[in-house]
Amino acid sequence: MEIFSKELKDTDVRVRFSFPTHCLEHLDFAGNNFVDLRVKDSCGELRVIRCLKRNGDYEKPVLSKGWLKFVADYGLRVGDKAVLLREDDHSLGSQFRIEARRRIVLFGGEAWGEVTRTT
């Protein structure tokens, strides 16, 4: 099940990744303002990416710790897309899968292709 899909902006690839507030319903913060997500990447490796939610009336969630390493490992840039999916992998201990996609123009048409790890 897809939790979010977002085209990356400059702040997303340089600082932190923000995503829609309605996605918070899929995450268990257990009374805290952060949760460490155990995420499987496209190579099947486990990553831990911290999700913070801002305090106050506007709880805009952001991915922080671990996010920029994912960006660097996959060579992500502005205009690429990040997709977070709900997917339990009991052997790996992950609850989510993260994918990176890049727009491809082929024969005049556009499609999204999966980005492979560069490092």
Explain what this protein looks like in three dimensions.
It comes from Salix brachista. InterPro entries: B3_DNA-bd, DNA-bd_pseudobarrel_sf. It is found in: Nucleus. Keywords: DNA-binding, Nucleus, Transcription, Transcription regulation. Its main location: nucleus. The protein starts with a strand and ends in a 5-residue tail after the last strand. Strands 1, 2, 3, 4, 5, 6, 7 and 8 form an eight-stranded mixed β-sheet that branches. The chain contains two helices and eight strands; from the N terminus they run E-H-E-E-E-E-H-E-E-E. 11% of the residues lie in helices and 45% in strands. The mean pLDDT is 90. The chain has helices spanning 10-14, 67-74; strands spanning 2-7, 17-18, 34-40, 46-53, 61-63, 81-89, 94-106, 109-114. It has a single domain, classed as At1g16640 B3 domain. It is mostly beta strands. A hairpin with a 5-residue loop joins strand 3 and strand 4.
